[in-house]
Automatic annotation (TrEMBL):
Keywords: Metal-binding, Methyltransferase, Transferase, Zinc
Protein name: Homocysteine S-methyltransferase
PROSITE patterns, alphabetized: HCY
Source organism: Actinomyces gaoshouyii
Residue numbers spanned by region Disordered: 1-24
Chain ranges of the Hcy-binding domain: 25-330
Gene assigned in the entry: metH
Amino acid sequence: MEATSTRPSSPGRSAAGSAHDNADVSPLARALREGPLVLDGAMGTELDARGIPTAQELWSALALVTAPEAVAAVHESYLRAGARVITTNSYQAALPALMRSGLSEPEARGAIASSARIALETAERFSQERPDRAALVAGSLGPYGAYLADGSEYTGAYALQAPDFEAVHIPRIEALAGEGIRLFAVETQPRLDEAQWIVRQLGRIAPGSECWVSFQTEDDGERLADGTPLAEVGAWADVEPGVAAVGINCVAPSAVTPALGVLGSVTAKPLVAYPNSGDIYHPSTKTWTSAAPDQRFTAQAPDWGEAGARLIGGCCRTTPADTAVLRGLVDAR
């Protein structure tokens, strides 16, 4: 489905550049010409800090219905901390889950669409204030395992032939594209076949869009959570025209440098890295063990630029304070 909205996928489309640039170069590519890009960090952590409950099936997506102003405030906090790219709060926003929570189908689709509107409007306001740092918005597309809410996004132990597999992915892509999103974050993917399927759907539903694809890996950074060699992933991304960048996210910080090394050996495309804070997650109990200060992800981030990362941010349990540290590291380079 071609989106009918005239809203741009990001205020970055209005950044300085020639008419030829605007016509021929994507906003992401144009922004990368200036240097590495800082991504935002965790949404759920910041909602929790604002008193918005996330300990339920919908996780941070519930705030789209109950506290949209808090979602906007989190986006703004990351932009003010130095992020150039914010992602929509749609990672866990699946149509079947939203409908199970009591929403009608039109209401559920509207909630997903609101994740795009909130992010785009926040980025637009910020970009008008800081035209030198025009912000990009990426539509977050989590894996089917995130919808299952059973920790399987960390294992890939599910079937793509599940009856509600398409019902999780397709309406979300349609809703985000319908609001004008043309940059997508296909993230926390534990399986190559699911990522390939999502990228094909993006080409069908949102022609001309681009995405980065970031994967969930084992702790050694050499294989996906389901065992697929990361080198195979990088080789696919290298020749896939719909993929603008490839990398890893929601992994232990120690996995990042090895993973970037594997990917950099098989693709020339920009690499992406946004690991967890360094705290240890226990899927069975949905609890965390806090990392020591010297194990926090920002302590290792200087190595990632050297290893080829061009988009750097944080995932679970990271904060705007971490984003500010990353911004400082990128500026120092």
